Structures are given as structure tokens and as C-alpha cells.
């Protein structure tokens, strides 16, 4: 979309705003907007009421897993109302999927139409606090996994899946918050979204590590325990690096990752140990990659 620049008296220049954007953002009643300079771009944003987003889709012959992916993806994207049309009764799959969201509910089911709305009225303004809570949940999840795997081994898979779902719920919420806020700095916004997505992947690897032990009762050595604990230490350092932004910390994490890569080769002596090493190594690899995103956000 191109707009004409009009020179005013003195050194002032003006452009007109698209009427569709003005109406959607209720500019008539909120006459102030924010303008951010980003190299060759001007980013115009409205920090007043966040736009209500609605979408209608048809779902036919979809498995429960795909229905869940559709709903959580639209939720993370920032959609506020989803109207689903289906020839089958998929209400049970929808309700199960909504457990991975905060504030979403199935509010209407008439014949072949299902309406999901955000009834939570969430406040997305404090992204840093949301981010901090998600990262702390990931660290707590990993710590609990280590304690159970090398302790009394009382956890069961059903409980583990519930805990992982809770992690995913807050990761999706963080992704949704980023998309709803129209980040002033587009690069930082994209980097933070990638960070949130990476945390979700780390949570999945922790679940797989824990599930392997529960399902197969792996025989574990002291060396394997030390290896997994060091991977946890690397993830914790990544959290510290985000908040302290000490470049020496980033170097420590990278060095730790390099050492664990070498040690992993000595630990892969049987199939199940190899599987646990692989999941743990992916965690430290992801934790190290987070440092690059931290540099992008902080610099």
C-alpha cells in the first residue's frame, strides 16, 4: 500500500492513514498512536484496545491430534473467536484441545457448527513476566524429571502428559501474547516468538526423556546422571544469560555444549541409554541456540 507524502509548513510532512485501519483500531476515540523508527521503516501501532480477530474454518475427516493442532495454532496466532463447521460431532476433541489454552472455551454447539471464544479477557501487556514464568516452569519440569529418574521413580506417564500439557499451555499463551501485542521492534518480536517456540520444543524433549525412563526402566550409570545434570545446568545458564546478559555466560554455555557433545559419544553403549542421551543433548543444543536469540533481542 502506497501513501502520498505531503509537505507542510516548515519541516513537517504528513501522510494519511488507511480508513480500514483507523476504524478497526477505533482511532476516533483514541486519537494518539505510537510511531517507531526502524531504519527505512516507520512502524505505526495502536496501544489502545486490541483488535478482536475471528475466523471460520471447515474440518472434515480430521483426527483428534490435527483438530488440537488447528485450535492451538489459531490460539497462538492471536485469534479470539473460531467458528468450526463439521459434519461430525467433534465437541469432545475440541474440549480436550482447549485444555492446552488459557481463556478459550466452547460456548456454542448448534447442529454442525462449533464456536470457540476467548472468554478470559487476558492482559498481554507484561510480556517479560509471562516469559519469565514460562522459562521457570521449563526449568522446574526438568528438575523434577531428574529427581524422579534418578530417585524413587514414582511418576506415571499419564501424570507426565498432564504436566507437559501445562507447559505447552503457557508456551502457547506466550506466543499468543507476542502476536497480540504488535511488537514495536519487529526483529525483537520475531526473535522472542522464536524463543517461545524453542522453549516449547525443550519442554517436549524433557517429556520424552522422562517418558523413556518410565516406559523402559532404564539402567542408569553415574556418568549418565552427571551428563543429564550438566544439560540442566546449561539450560539454567541460558535463563541467567537472558536476564543478566553477560557475554561470558554465553561462552560458558557454548563450551559446556561442546564438552557434552564429546561425552555423549562415550555414553551411547546401549539403545535406551542412547535415547536418553539424545534427548538430553537436544536440550543443551536448544539452550545454546537460545543465546543467539538473546543477542538479537538485547543488542
Structural description of this entry:
The chain is α+β, with helices and mostly antiparallel strands. The chain folds into three domains: 6-45; 54-118, 2-Layer Sandwich (Translation Initiation Factor IF3), CATH 3.30.110; 127-298, Phosphate transport system protein phou homolog 2, domain 2 (Methane Monooxygenase Hydroxylase, Chain G, domain 1, Up-down Bundle), CATH 1.20.58. It is 60% helix and 12% strand. The protein has nine helices and eight strands. The protein has helices spanning 19-24, 64-77, 91-98, 127-149, 157-180, 186-216, 222-244, 247-267, 271-298; strands spanning 6-7, 13-14, 34-38, 41-45, 54-58, 81-85, 104-110, 113-118. The strands form three sheets. Strands 5-6-8-7 form a four-stranded mixed β-sheet, covered by helices on one side. A two-stranded antiparallel ribbon has the order 1-2. Helix 4 (127-149) runs antiparallel to helix 5, helix 4 runs parallel beside helix 6 and helix 7 (222-244) packs antiparallel against helix 8 (247-267).
